[in-house]
UniProtKB/TrEMBL annotation, chain A:
<dbReference type="Pfam" id="PF01315">
    <property type="entry name" value="Ald_Xan_dh_C"/>
</dbReference>
<dbReference type="Pfam" id="PF02738">
    <property type="entry name" value="MoCoBD_1"/>
</dbReference>
<dbReference type="InterPro" id="IPR036856">
    <property type="entry name" value="Ald_Oxase/Xan_DH_a/b_sf"/>
</dbReference>
<protein>
    <submittedName>
        <fullName>Xanthine dehydrogenase family protein molybdopterin-binding subunit</fullName>
    </submittedName>
</protein>
<keyword id="KW-0500">Molybdenum</keyword>
<keyword id="KW-0560">Oxidoreductase</keyword>
<dbReference type="GO" id="GO:0016491">
    <property type="term" value="F:oxidoreductase activity"/>
</dbReference>
<dbReference type="GO" id="GO:0005506">
    <property type="term" value="F:iron ion binding"/>
</dbReference>
<dbReference type="InterPro" id="IPR016208">
    <property type="entry name" value="Ald_Oxase/xanthine_DH-like"/>
</dbReference>
UniProtKB/TrEMBL annotation, chain B:
<dbReference type="InterPro" id="IPR016167">
    <property type="entry name" value="FAD-bd_PCMH_sub1"/>
</dbReference>
<dbReference type="InterPro" id="IPR002346">
    <property type="entry name" value="Mopterin_DH_FAD-bd"/>
</dbReference>
<dbReference type="GO" id="GO:0071949">
    <property type="term" value="F:FAD binding"/>
</dbReference>
<dbReference type="Pfam" id="PF00941">
    <property type="entry name" value="FAD_binding_5"/>
</dbReference>
<dbReference type="GO" id="GO:0016491">
    <property type="term" value="F:oxidoreductase activity"/>
</dbReference>
<dbReference type="InterPro" id="IPR016166">
    <property type="entry name" value="FAD-bd_PCMH"/>
</dbReference>
<dbReference type="InterPro" id="IPR036683">
    <property type="entry name" value="CO_DH_flav_C_dom_sf"/>
</dbReference>
<protein>
    <submittedName>
        <fullName>Xanthine dehydrogenase family protein subunit M</fullName>
    </submittedName>
</protein>
<dbReference type="InterPro" id="IPR016169">
    <property type="entry name" value="FAD-bd_PCMH_sub2"/>
</dbReference>
Length: 787, 262
């Protein structure tokens, strides 16, 4: 009998009432009295020297309050980078200045050249067209390898070339790995591209800056996944506003996928301009602006080599990756191709020798940063593609090759610095073989062939690191922030509870899932608990939501705070029941004295805490509210196995996904319906990357896929009905809920699965194609079949 | 958008008069023009909505048995309103999404002549007649290249007359992002011959593939066009497909259209 409440229940998402009835409160719904609007004039060239800007005519236009240029920000801080990577030689990465508005040069199409603040959007836009400027166009660098050529144009004149860093991991292993590859019985090599993506959340970014002279208080309403991070970065590094004078509010947010982690220029601008002008300043991104100003994702070019011994055991792995940073370092950009990628290169396998080299490169393109999975999809893609190629070269079953090399004993310390606490990769592969009906594939292939279609089966195994993560560890790795989280559990007088959390929900369903945990712990109804998030004036200092960390990190903080609440409530109950505290038990919303029928209800105890007439005031303070900060001991390691069956139309190259099965191990599951939804969404994004999405620049740095006319997002009929399962559960060993995180798995595990399936289909048709770079559009697949 | 005046006349004469203003533009369903305005890529002095002109909306038949579709008729209305011409109904039913089909009009599509639009293929393959407020134009004389037509400034498409073929089918290979035709082929078999029109493929916009027409005239089977191909030269090459790929798809889509037309 499935549970109807508490941990494990498929409680319906309470937030959907407002999301589905149009009563959400998004940042663009916020309009303040006397509000002004900003229009950003953005560079239409990828690289150029700003010779001259004349804003006089624009400032004389009707309704215009002021026009800002880079000059106005000369005394203001730049946008900070939150992670410093140290290179192979022990040197810090090259870190260019990142101005709010371009100064001296523009470095990508979309960079802010000037900002017009006016009393309406259209008037601001009219005036932006009246700004006279002269930009001397310079040659752009777009291709990463070309950018590293000695005579390449420099994106930043004050840096030493376009190399941000050359990272080796683990550098001490380099020679051992080289030797292992030299001595291997077989080496499989693959060169591949992890295609650049645009996150495309349904809600574009919005910022509203406000300033109250009466109390010198600045407020920023913004579409953010982590309001405290924005407050810290913008207050301390950009605008110099002390935290008690700066409030950041991220209300309902319509999807982030990583792109709303970062601190963006527009946020700083609106906050700054509101203070300058004494009036609120609002910016709402158009979809066109989003394409050229939201941080992009992925964009890796990799060569990977997998070495095997004569018995097909993996003996070594070596990768060389070029990672595109774009023109500036976005907030967490340097960490993505390094610590979120290199540390996962072991995958699910006990490969003893691994060396990862990453060259991060500046180009005249939009900055690149974390996007759903962030580094882990790139790692999984290379590894699972090269393993598939190795199986084909060696003539062995790809599932058997994977199983043979799986890590089976835990904890397992990888050669790339992380320790997997728990897992069972054979269990998820067993489950996958069952739910995907791998045995039935041959018959289905025959049926497809009878219809003139090529059918392929692709499998994969993946692991990821979630619940990012121990602050002391990430600090050693270069993070300029802690990565704990926080929760305050405020029990109200009549027993209902408000939980103020540092995590931020922008689609994850925290408002439903978090109360399930409290309900389970206290035995009260889920409807007695509300979750408050997204406002630095209401919540404790938490680090927000990304890297599938909300439940594993913030949920753990909530558990710890609730445990403190229970401990205190037991003292009160002991007093009310005239019993020893050690004998008090809490069950089904009642405190009882062990071995007796004496009991007091949860609500009577909470009332006593706020109306402390009969109360142990000498031992216990009134009130019932506790806060906990939780800093995890390790990452969590969700893992699983995916299978995909595709049909390829041999005449057109069109790929259709016929079946997709996912067997995931997320540890304990709080709400299986929400977990299903997270997996479905992740799979859709992975399918988008594998088959459709392609953020393309031309050689001049013009964004070719700058709208939905050319950038293909997955639609409902591009995705199949999924078979998902998360019944294989090895609970995380180091957090109180035993949870791992499920938000990114689908996007991590699916792209290689799909590409493996397409390559299998092509081979079944006699096309000896080793690899096709994503997205596997009809034209690319057709071209590959032409040889 | 830039500021513009707006008129919504209720008769064709009023619409024609309203369009006399310099830089005035007619507004059909707005499925291309409105996004262009929002991007500030168009700056008309005045928009003249044809939405209120009932006399150019609706579907009827003339004495010659042709289907006469008013220029202001939406794609959804065509999809539901031409049961005797299933290929045309299916084409209309597969343009864009429901919102597009309930706003976009046949006149707007043909006047715009997007090189990847579906309707130009139907009009050209059917040998339709484009009727305007001043004249009748044969489809063969109407399409003059990408976004170019025989229409004069201020001329309004009032009606499109489609002869109904014995057999026909439109086969569309969708561009993955826009879902416009990467290549679309409309094949129509009449008593006196076969017409094959190709959209999406050529830099010159919709065109007739006369070689295929000749082959199909004597043998209306996919095998008849099996060995035929169009040259890649002059085909569109972009992010979604090379000229070679488009040229290849012209052959594939033609064979499939013939097979489906039966």
């Amino acid at each position: 009998m499935p549970k109807d409440h508490g941990i494990g229940a498929a409680s319906k998402r309470r937030e959907d009432v407002r999301f589905l009835t149009g009563t959400g409160n998004y940042t663009d719904d916020i309009n303040l009295p006397r509000q002004l609007y900003v229009h950003f004039l953005r560079s239409d060239v990828a690289h150029g020297e700003i010779r001259h800007i004349d804003t006089g005519a624009a400032e004389a236009m009707p309704g215009v309050k002021r026009v800002f240029t880079g000059k106005d920000f000369e005394g203001v801080g730049g946008l900070p980078c939150g992670w410093q990577v140290t290179d192979r030689h022990g040197q810090p990465m090259q870190e260019p200045a990142h101005p709010v508005i371009a100064q001296g040069k523009v470095r990508y199409v979309g960079e802010i050249l000037a900002a017009v603040v006016a009393d309406s959007r259209e008037r601001a836009r009219d005036a932006a067209e009246a700004i006279e400027f002269d930009i001397a166009e310079l040659p752009a660098v777009v291709d990463m390898k070309a950018a590293l050529a000695p005579d390449a144009p420099k994106v930043h004149d004050d840096l030493d070339g376009n190399l941000c860093y050359d990272w080796g991991f683990v550098e001490e292993n380099r020679e051992t790995v080289d030797a292992a590859i030299r001595e291997a019985a077989h080496v499989t090599t693959l060169e591949l591209v992890n295609n650049r993506l645009v996150a495309n959340p349904m809600e574009p970014r919005v910022a509203v800056g406000d300033y109250s002279r009466a109390d010198d208080q600045s407020t920023l309403y913004t579409t953010s996944q982590n309001p405290h991070v924005i407050r810290l970065l913008m207050g301390a590094f950009v605008l110099g506003i002390p935290e008690h004078k700066l409030r950041v509010v991220a209300p309902d947010v319509g999807g982030g996928f990583g792109s709303k982690i970062f601190h963006y220029a527009e946020e700083a601008f609106c906050t700054f301009a509101a203070r300058q002008l004494g009036r609120p300043v609002k910016w709402t991104s158009t979809r066109s602006e989003a394409f050229m100003s939201d941080a992009h994702g992925r964009d890796h070019v990799t060569k990977i080599e997998l070495a095997l011994d004569a018995d097909n055991n993996f003996t070594a792995l070596r990768t060389e990756t070029h990672a595109n940073m774009g023109a500036y370092l976005s907030t967490f950009a340097p960490s993505v191709p390094t610590w979120l990628h290199g540390t996962l290169m072991a995958g699910n396998y006990k490969t003893p020798n691994i060396y990862v080299n990453v060259k991060a490169v500046f180009t005249n393109t939009v900055p690149v940063d974390a996007y759903r999975g962030a580094g882990r999809p790139e790692a999984t893609f290379q590894l699972e593609r090269v393993i598939d190629k190795a199986a084909r070269e060696l003539g062995v079953d790809p599932i058997a090759l994977r199983r043979q090399n799986f890590v089976t004993e835990f904890p397992y310390a990888t050669p790339v610095a992380v320790e997997y606490d728990t897992g069972d990769y054979n269990a998820t592969m067993d489950k996958l073989e069952e739910i995907a009906d791998i045995k039935g594939f041959a018959a289905r292939r025959k049926e497809s062939e009878a219809r003139g279609k090529l059918r392929g089966l692709g499998v994969n195994a993946y692991i990821e690191a979630c619940g990012i993560a121990p602050s002391n560890l990430v600090g050693q790795l270069g993070a300029r922030a802690g990565l704990y989280d926080a929760a305050t559990v405020r029990v109200n007088a009549t027993g209902s509870i408000s939980v103020m959390v540092g995590a931020h929900s922008h689609g994850q369903g925290h408002e439903t899932a978090f109360p399930q945990v409290i309900s389970e712990m206290l035995g009260i109804g889920e409807d007695q608990v509300e979750i408050v998030h997204g406002d630095t004036s209401k919540i404790p200092f938490g680090m927000g939501t990304y890297g599938s960390r909300s439940l594993a990190v913030c949920g753990s903080a909530m558990v710890r705070a609730t445990e403190k609440v229970v401990a205190k409530a037991k003292k009160i109950a002991a007093h009310l029941l005239e019993a020893a505290e050690a004998d008090i038990e809490l069950r089904d919303g009642k405190f009882t004295v062990a071995g007796t029928d004496k009991e007091v209800a949860w609500g009577d105890v909470t009332l006593a805490a706020y109306v402390p007439h009969n109360y142990p005031l000498e031992d216990v303070e009134p009130g019932l509210e506790e806060t906990a900060f939780y800093d995890p001991a390790n990452f969590t390691y969700p893992a699983g196995a995916y299978a995909c069956e595709v049909e390829v139309d041999p005449e057109t190259g069109k790929v259709t996904i016929e079946r997709f099965a996912a067997a995931d191990d997320f540890g304990n599951v709080i709400n299986p319906m929400i977990v299903d939804g997270q997996v479905h969404g992740g799979l859709a994004q992975g399918i988008g990357q594998a088959l459709l999405e392609n953020c393309a620049y031309d050689e001049n740095g013009q964004l070719v896929s700058a709208s939905y006319m050319d950038y293909a997002m997955p639609r409902a009929d591009d995705v199949p009905f999924y078979t998902v399962d998360h019944s294989c559960q090895t609970p995380c060993t180091h957090n109180p809920l035993g949870v791992k995180g499920c938000g990114e798995a689908g996007a991590i595990g699916s792209p290689p699965t799909i590409v493996n399936a397409v390559i299998d289909a092509l081979h079944s048709g006699g096309h000896k194609v080793d690899h096709i770079d994503m997205p596997l559009t009809p034209s690319r697949v057709w071209a590959a079949m032409q040889g | 958008m830039y500021a513009f005046d707006f008129e919504k006349p209720t008769s064709l004469n009023e619409a024609v008069t309203a369009l006399q203003t310099e830089e005035a533009m007619p507004l059909g369903g707005g499925q291309t023009l409105i996004p262009s305005l929002k991007q500030r890529l168009a700056a008309p002095s005045k928009l003249v909505s044809l939405r209120g002109v009932d006399e150019i909306r609706g579907i009827c038949r003339d004495d010659a048995g042709r289907i006469c579709i008013g220029g202001g008729t939406t794609h959804a209305e065509v999809a539901a309103g031409v049961p005797e011409y299933p290929a045309l109904a299916a084409l209309a039913a597969n343009i864009g999404d429901p919102a597009v089909r309930n706003r976009g009009t046949i006149g707007g599509s043909l006047a715009n002549n997007d090189p990847s639009a579906c309707y130009p293929a139907a009009a050209l393959a059917s040998g339709a007649t484009i009727v305007t407020n001043t004249r009748e134009i044969a489809a063969d004389d109407y399409f003059e290249g990408m976004f170019m037509t025989a229409l004069e400034e201020g001329e309004i498409i009032t009606e499109v007359r489609f002869p109904v073929p014995e057999k026909a089918h439109y086969e569309k290979f969708e561009q993955p992002a826009s879902r416009f035709a990467l290549v679309g082929v409309f094949v129509a078999k009449f008593a006196d011959g076969v017409r094959v029109a190709v959209t999406g493929a050529s830099e010159e916009g919709v065109f007739r593939w006369s070689e295929a027409e000749a082959a199909l005239a004597s043998d209306f089977t996919p095998e008849a066009v099996q060995g035929l191909s169009v040259p890649a030269e002059g085909m569109i090459g972009d992010l979604h497909g090379s000229p070679e790929y488009r040229a290849h798809l012209v052959g594939v889509m033609t064979r499939r259209a013939v097979a489906a037309a039966g």
